[in-house]
Design goal:
Layout (H helix, E strand, L loop, with lengths): L1 E6 L11 H17 L12 E3 L13 H16 L7 H28 L1 H18 L6 E8 L1 H14 L6 H6 L4 H10 E9 L11 H8 L4 E2 L16 E5 L14 E2 L2 E5 L18 H11 L8
Helix pairs in contact: 1-9, 2-3
């Protein structure tokens, strides 16, 4: 059995749901896959769709993140004096507000996530959604799709499941998780594809002291720790497709930082907008096309 998991990224102010983005990506990519002779992605109803970080029935206690950001924004706005009328103030004022918004409602999501408790809270929401649709005792091949901070969530989730550094049973129970379910998923699930876009993974590698030391020694990370070194149930080797655009200030390549897997950085040049490029991946035909072109690559044996 194959399942697809969709994980959205940073949440702009006033977000309500990501179903439209998930469907646009699913339909656009499926159309391109069909043209390339591949099977379409399964319907969203048969896929794991994640919502986190804002008030939503599926977001659990991660909804408090958006509420905290609203309080911060309200207090900052109330404390901000009126602009001076100098030429420089008038010139740069239009740029300040969107940059502040980027920090308060975009980068703040990532800062919250990379904290240990923030990461665990969001991961538990994703894990719970996966268990609603996927039996951990059933052999399953996963395609995990993550955008922006969702790519961090995806990579950390896979590391949590497939590396040899999983939490011990007592820690899992303390988080309200069943250790037997986690171990069963580790045994029975495989990664078929990891698809990331608009990903800040490379910029945030140094959030771990162990990874910082590896990079300081000019080393690379082992993608096998993400489950990308083990054949799927259909005998295929996993594939990591990372889509990025230099106009997107949050997006970076990943291929130079990992070994032990078939990893491809894809560059569709899908947007010239500094502010719009980050959200455009879901809907951009150029993105769907480059992913479809790489979808059927048959990796060789991994080293």
């Amino acid at each position: 059995m194959e399942r697809v998991v969709y994980i959205h990224g940073v949440v702009p102010q006033g977000a309500v749901d990501h179903t439209t983005s998930y469907r646009a990506f699913r339909d656009g990519l499926s159309s391109r896959l069909d043209a390339e002779g591949h099977d379409a992605l399964p319907p969203l109803a048969d896929s794991v769709t994640v919502e986190w970080g804002f008030p939503h029935p599926l977001a659990g206690d991660t909804a408090s993140l958006a509420r905290a950001q609203e309080v911060i924004t309200r207090r900052v706005d109330a404390a901000t004096p009126s602009d001076r009328t100098s030429f420089s103030a008038l010139l740069f004022a239009p740029a300040i507000e969107p940059v502040r918004g980027l920090i308060q409602h975009t980068w703040a999501d990532i800062v919250h996530y990379v904290s240990e408790k923030g990461k665990a809270r969001i991961r538990n929401v994703v894990w719970g959604r996966m268990l609603e649709l996927i039996d951990p005792h059933e052999p399953t091949d996963l395609t995990v799709i993550g955008h922006s901070a969702g790519s961090l969530i995806a990579v950390d989730l896979l590391f949590w499941l497939f590396s040899h550094q999983r939490d011990d049973p007592d820690e899992l129970r303390a988080m309200g998780l069943d250790p037997d379910e986690v171990e069963a998923a580790h045994t029975n699930w495989r990664v078929r594809r990891l698809v990331t876009f608009g990903s800040p993974i490379a910029a945030l590698l140094i959030r771990s002291t162990a990874v910082t030391d590896i990079l300081a020694a000019d080393g690379t990370l082992d993608a096998a720790d993400l489950g990308l070194g083990t054949r799927c149930h259909d005998g295929q080797m996993p594939l990591w497709l990372n889509v990025w655009d230099r106009h997107d200030v949050l997006a970076y390549p990943v291929e130079p930082f990992y070994t032990g897997a078939e990893i491809h950085d894809l560059y569709p040049d899908h947007s010239d907008s500094l502010l719009g490029s980050h959200e455009a991946y879901w809907h951009a035909d150029r993105v769907h096309r480059v992913i479809a072109d790489a979808w059927g690559r048959q990796p060789g044996p991994l080293t």
